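Exam revision sheet. Question 4 asks you to relate a sequence to its structure. Input first:
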Amino acid sequence: MPAVMTYASLVDDITLYSERTNDATYIAQIPRIVMLAELDLAASWRGLGNQKWVTDAFTIDQPIVAKPAYWRETIAWNFGTGTGNATRNYLLERSLEYCRIYWPDPTVSSSSVVPLYYANYDWDNFFVAPTPAVAYPFELGYYERITPLDDANQTNWLTEHAPQLLLSACMLQAQFFLKWMGERLQAWQGMYATQAQNLGLEARNQTIDRSTAVDK
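Answer key, structure tokens:
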């Protein structure tokens, strides 16, 4: 049976690779090391593995729309109008100030206009202008922080498809905790950079097919 990575096996690997199997303080820190590695990957890596699409609908007369859990960056946002809501309309990203200037009173809505723009209101919410007057169904694409690992969630996309990258990211974080700033740090930095580059190239190749002409 092929070897697979789980949260439990990742914790064991981090302990063994660091040669700290009897260091209780270090072992207790490993959940934080994994968390920091996951956040680093969420901030730096973009690919099909952390791309997600969700559907919902606007709330009438409400310009504030909650972002999905673990949202990191928006890819695209469209909503349906017309017969059967089959016509796709794409919202354009603008600054919050632009949206407020364009639609100065968010308490006003009109069925004669549809939403045109969105902005990041804060980390947890979007701001839409004009304010929706109809509960248009929408589809939101975004990059997410892949569901965090813990004792209750043993696997995710990274453990299944990029365990080498996850382990390198964790070991890189571990070096800082252990204050190993010499050759070991450099080795793991190189390993992490190589694996991130390879996964990024794979992600890029997944967006094209062999019949597409691209600049190399």
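Marking note for examiners. The CA atoms of residues 66 and 125 lie 4 Å apart.
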